[in-house]
Amino acid sequence: MSAEFRTVAGGGSGIAYAEAGAGEAIVVVAASTTPAPAHHLLAKDRHVFIFADDGAAPESLAGRIGAALAALGVRRFDLIGHGAGAAAVLWLALARPAETGAVVLVGPTALAARGGALEQRLGELKRPVLALFGTKGAHAPDEGDRYRTLLPDCHLMFAYESGNEVERDRPEALAFIVREFCERRDLFLVSRDSGLTLP
Amino acid sequence: MKASLFCTARYMGPAPHDIWPLAADTFSGEVAQRSMETTFEQFRCADEFGFDWVTTAEHHYSAFSLTPNPMVMAGALTQVVKRAKIAVLGPTIPILNPVRVAEEFAMLDTMSGGRVVAGMLRGTPNEYVTYNINPSESRERFAEALHLIRRAWTEQQPFGWLGRYYQYRAIAIWPRPVQKPHPPIYMSGSSPEAGEFAAKNRIGIGFAFTTVPMAKKAVQHYRAVAHGDGWDPPPDQVIYRAMFHVAESDEQAFADLSALPPRVALTDQNAAISEAVKDTSYYGSQLQEQSQRNARRELSDRIELGQVIVGSPETALKQVRRIRDELGAGILDLVVGAQLGDKTLRSIELFGTKVLPRMREL
Question: Rg of the Cα trace of chain A?
Answer without folding.
Answer: 16
